[in-house]
From TrEMBL:
Belongs to the binding-protein-dependent transport system permease family. UgpAE subfamily. SUPFAM superfamilies: MetI-like (SSF161098). The chain crosses the membrane at residues 12-33, 75-96, 108-128, 156-180, 201-227, 266-287. This is sn-glycerol-3-phosphate transport system permease protein UgpA. The lineage of its organism: Bacteria, Pseudomonadati, Pseudomonadota, Gammaproteobacteria, Oceanospirillales. Residues 71-283 form the ABC transmembrane type-1 domain. It comes from Vreelandella salicampi.
Length: 293
């Protein structure tokens, strides 16, 4: 039997959700509406005059081959960040969950990187892989691998993926560890009694029970890679060499704030928003069906 919650004051529920609604309207809905409006305009650099041009900004985008290259960069970058963060975080969570002595210390150390801002993480990895005096770059040189992400686009993409994934691993680790600790130990012990080895126990028993957490993390990691990694790109490569690491969110900034093409920048932000909403909808429609709750 379900008991409905009742409020003595009929306006109290609306008052309770008002702060969240205000934040959503001011910081999400209103900027999105402004971007949509601006995407149909051509404005001068100072915003003193504008002309309504319908879909000309979108037509210019989708007839520009360079924009498709940026889309490919974004796809590679977002997939790379999502895969690296989830695989490494799951491995660390499984290892930390099996530690008996000093478990809390390991867990604390593995969650610390989450406190590092993306831009700061980018600077740290930039120092480590500096071609002239970076510790890791020099170490690679000693084994015969010449590292110079200023000239090599593939190396630059690998660097920004690493820099963006490193602090995010801690976020994924927290969720995977909590999910692992919620699995009844009796199931794992029963599989061990039946003769299943560690790998078989993980893939046959533990991993299916982690599917809700895995699905959630896939969604939030993709959103993170699309929207929250501007600081990494800006501090590490600034989209270079050439446009090898230029992703959609950085191109919005580059064209709008550096090139002062406000209409095109707004159109790009609308396209980016539609892509992320579409990917999220597809994940919930098709991938969620395979999630075992």
């Amino acid at each position: 039997m379900h008991k409905n919650v009742t409020f003595k004051n009929p306006w109290l529920p609306y008052l309770l959700v008002l702060p969240q609604m205000a934040v959503t309207i001011v910081f999400f809905i209103w900027p999105a509406a402004q971007a949509l409006k601006q995407s149909f305009l051509v404005e001068d650099a100072f915003g003193l005059s504008s002309e309504f041009v319908w879909f000309d900004n979108f037509v210019a985008l989708f007839t520009d081959p360079a924009y498709y290259e940026v889309m490919i960069n974004t796809a590679l970058f977002s997939i790379g960040v999502t895969v690296v963060t989830m695989v490494v975080a799951m491995l660390l969570a499984v290892m930390a969950d099996g530690v008996l002595r000093g478990k809390r210390t390991y867990q604390l150390l593995l969650t610390w990187p989450y406190a590092v801002a993306p831009a700061v993480a980018g600077v740290l990895w930039l120092f480590l892989f500096n071609p002239s005096n970076g510790v890791l770059a020099l170490a690679l040189r000693t084994i015969g691998y010449n590292w110079n992400h200023y000239l090599n686009g593939e190396q630059a993409m690998a660097l920004v993926i690493t820099a963006a994934a490193w602090p995010r691993i801690a976020y994924n680790f927290i969720f995977f560890l909590a999910a692992l600790q919620s699995i009844p130990r009796s199931l794992i012990e029963a599989a061990a009694i039946d003769g299943a080895g560690p790998a078989r126990r993980f893939f046959s028993v533990m991993f299916p029970l982690l599917s809700p957490t895995t699905f959630f993390l896939v969604v939030v990691n993709l959103v993170y890679a699309f929207f929250e990694t501007f600081g990494v790109i800006h501090t590490v490569t600034q989209g270079g060499p050439g446009t090898a690491t230029e992703i959609l969110v950085y191109k919005v900034f580059k064209d709008g704030f550096i090139g002062l093409d406000l209409g095109s920048s707004a159109a790009q932000s609308v396209v980016l928003m539609v892509i992320v909403i579409g990917l999220t909808a597809i994940q919930f429609k098709y991938i969620e069906r395979k999630v075992q709750y």
